[in-house]
UniProtKB/TrEMBL annotation:
Listed GO MF terms: ATP binding; protein serine/threonine kinase activity
Pfam families assigned: Pkinase
PANTHER family cross-referenced by the UniProt entry: RIBOSOMAL PROTEIN S6 KINASE
Protein name per Swiss-Prot or TrEMBL: AKT3 kinase
Species name: Horornis vulcanius
Chain's gene name: Akt3
Residue numbers binding ATP: K130
Similarity comment: Belongs to the protein kinase superfamily. AGC Ser/Thr protein kinase family. RAC subfamily.
Family annotation (PROSITE patterns): PH_DOMAIN (PS50003), PROTEIN_KINASE_ATP (PS00107), PROTEIN_KINASE_DOM (PS50011)
Domain (PH) ranges: 1-50
Keyword terms of this UniProt record: ATP-binding, Kinase, Nucleotide-binding, Serine/threonine-protein kinase, Transferase
The keyword NAD is assigned to this record: no
Residue ranges of domain Protein kinase in the record: 91-241
Amino acid sequence: ECQLMKTERPKPNTFIIRCLQWTTVIERTFHVDTPEEREEWTEAIQAVADRLQRQEEERMNCSPTSQIDNIGEEEMDASTTHHKRKTMNDFDYLKLLGKGTFGKVILVREKASGKYYAMKILKKEVIIAKDEVAHTLTESRVLKNTRHPFLTSLKYSFQTKDRLCFVMEYVNGGELFFHLSRERVFSEDRTRFYGAEIVSALDYLHSGKIVYHFGLCKEGITDAATMKTFCGTPEYLAPEV
């Protein structure tokens, strides 16, 4: 499932495609010559997205459900504190923050504390069908074992019969893309500040032999190891790359 947004910045007749790949929001920006051409493109993309969504739903309706029980039960049913095991009933569900193939992200409020969190709710059957079980469990382990001011923290993780739930720190300052679109150009000091935050977070992960890989994490990576898949957002890549 994808979102299509129309804008006149940074160029006229711009449209943006936003989707959720696993648990990572991905955006791509395109420019065309006329409003009519933009309308044709967005309608065609939405038609393809709707068709793929229907096909996925039909395929999942035919999938067995016995294999989706208790994915990594010991790893998933845990919290970062010694509180009792959490359930869906411990939260008020306020607003949908994002939605994609694997599930959705919802703004929630913990009933006991009144604190706000972002809850990622992932469908077990889709994770299994897409062969993402290992990646999901890796994310759970990394989130539980990392503590850094520039990394989003995990408060709780638990599961139901057909869902995996990650209760994350709610960060409402907006995406880098939003601020860059509004400011057009960052000052050197602001750019240096953002860069320092990112480098600090990556250095922390690397010190634990964890590689951040465009929304996915890989553990136990040695200094000489290399990855084999392209990663990154084309709009942000350096020209020489």
